[in-house]
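[Meeting: bench + compute handoff]

Bench side (C.D.) handed over the final construct sequence. Compute side (W.E.) agreed to return the predicted structure before the next meeting so the bench team could plan truncations. Sequence as handed over:
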Amino acid sequence: MATSERSNLIDLGKTPINPLVFWGVVTLALVLAVVLVLSAIGLVSGVYLLLLVPVGAYLVIMGVFIGYLSKLYRERSRLMTERIREEEARVGEFKKLNQELEAYAKQLFDKDFELTLANKRLQNLEQAKSKFVSVTTHQLRTPLAAIKWTFHMLLGGSLGPVTGEQRDFLQKGYDSTQRIIAIINDLLNVDYIEADKSDYNFLAVNLAELIEGVIFEFINLAESKKIKLDFIKPSNRLPPVAADPVKISMVLENLIDNALKYTLPAGRVTINLSDAKINSARSRVEVVVVDTGIGVSAAEKDKIFHRFFRGANAIQREPDGTGLGLFIARDIIEKHGGEIWFESREGEGTNFHFTLPIFQ
């Protein structure tokens, strides 16, 4: 059906009375009126019939028209009925869809609640684990320090002379104790990873003095391994950097310790403090720890800062270790607003760089 006809049917559907009924009433009224008029004026039957002919023709024509209107009315009723059924079906579909959505929303709510509970349990477990590690490692540090000091005294002859064979065994015990202490320190340092930047105590730090203090702790180790340990700094005094001295000391200790650990005897470890980036758009001071050690293989360079990762050649040289040091160092430097990276060639050594912003 054309759009214009459908519009007409809709307009007809607004009529409150059936056209046939309406026309039947009008026709009956007209016939009665004509009969009454003719009877009243006393017209003869011939004239009566003559007058009825146009009236009858009129009624026939109108009846055909009314029949057409009735057909349209029925069609309109049928269309309206179909439309009502379609709307009812659509309403039913919407109700069904709404019920499905409500059921799905309830499932999502239940899943969200389950995930919230699971996340809470994981947080509790993580806190319990961190507390266990922290308490355990703190408890272990004191007796291990006493054992290390005892070995140190024995090796130094403070408790009497020792033979060469005894010295070898004592040195092995001392070295093993030192490795255990280093692992415990790494585990304790994991707590720093969980610290927010707001927990850092940023101060104006003289980086040259801080580096000199850290290097002093490694002089004996470097001498015992016959490794030359140097510190190169600019002739001009550098401006202070914005840093947490405790955490930056931790980064330096890790980088220098790794450099000494993986450099062969007669090698060299150099700490360079550079002012090359001070006059750049982002004023920075750069520190470079250079060693002539075992280096990093090309296949493992992308993993070097990952948690618990240790290179294959590093494990061969030093089996003990947690692989947390560089991961912690990167986290600390990034929270300072600095950058850390490295260059290395396997068998030739490694250069670790990091930058720190100038104190404003």
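W.E. noted at the follow-up: The chain has two domains: 1-194, 198-357. C.D. will use this when planning the next construct.
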